[in-house]
Amino acid sequence: MKATGKLVALAVLVAAPLTANAQDINFGALDDGANRVSLTAGAEHGLSLGAGYARVVSVADRELVLGGDLTLGWAEVDVDDFRLRGGLLAPIVSHGGWKVIGGLASTIRGTKNYAARMINVGADVSVLAGHYARRWFVAGEVGFDWALATHVDHSEAYRMEVYADARDGWYGNAGGNLRYGVQGGVSFGRNDVILRAGRMQDVAGNPAMIPFYATLTYGARW
Q1: DSSP assignment, residue 206?
Q2: What is the C-alpha separation between 73 and 8, in angstroms, rounded?
Q3: Measured over all CA atoms, what is the biggest interatomic distance in the chain, rounded to whole angstroms?
Q4: What's the whole-model pTM score?
Q5: Is the pLDDT of residue 12 over 60?
Q6: Are 117 and 100 in contact (CB under 8 A)?
Q7: Phi, psi (degrees; rounded to nearest 5) at 32
Q8: How far apart are CA 189 and CA 178, in angstroms?
Q9: How far apart are CA 148 and CA 105, in angstroms?
Q10: What is the end-to-end Cα distance of the chain in Å, rounded?
Q11: Which backbone phi and psi does 202 adopt, to 5 degrees?
Q12: Which residues does residue 187 pair with via DSSP β-bridges, in sequence order?
């Protein structure tokens, strides 16, 4: 089972180009009941391209953003390598345009190579703090992307060349990446253009394989 264990340990790295991240939203430009679609492109362990949908709802006089998105690797688009995410963002503290916003999302990632087909489930927690105005915003970002478990379906090639008795199934692989950076953007009409950038490291404090991220998002509201 050691070979399978090593394969599972690599699962997070294999799916790393599709890391979860905080929603790119200007809370100062949101209206109650608004819908929003977005397109995101950039580098986060690798090149990625994603599309998302979100809706604003009011709960106890607070604006909550509920939404989800789908991301694929951009360098070589492959539907076998994906990340599906769903979650929410909500203000924790607010004073005028200054806000502290918390986010929680669940994630499902998939990847396939010569060794196995792997599906990973995880969670992402984030905190944003900054100034949000109707036409612009800037905020700091801290987040933790936690990989909980991976389901592995070994290929015949893996069984023949590496380990014949490899067992398919779920394997725990708790671990993840810490990210920290900044994001900011401008809003005009019902459009948003938002840039994120920062650094990433694993739970042991080691830099990620590509230790920085940078994404550009276009969003449209109605």
Answers
A1: P
A2: 20
A3: 63
A4: 0.84
A5: no
A6: no
A7: -60, 130
A8: 34
A9: 13
A10: 53
A11: -85, 180
A12: 192
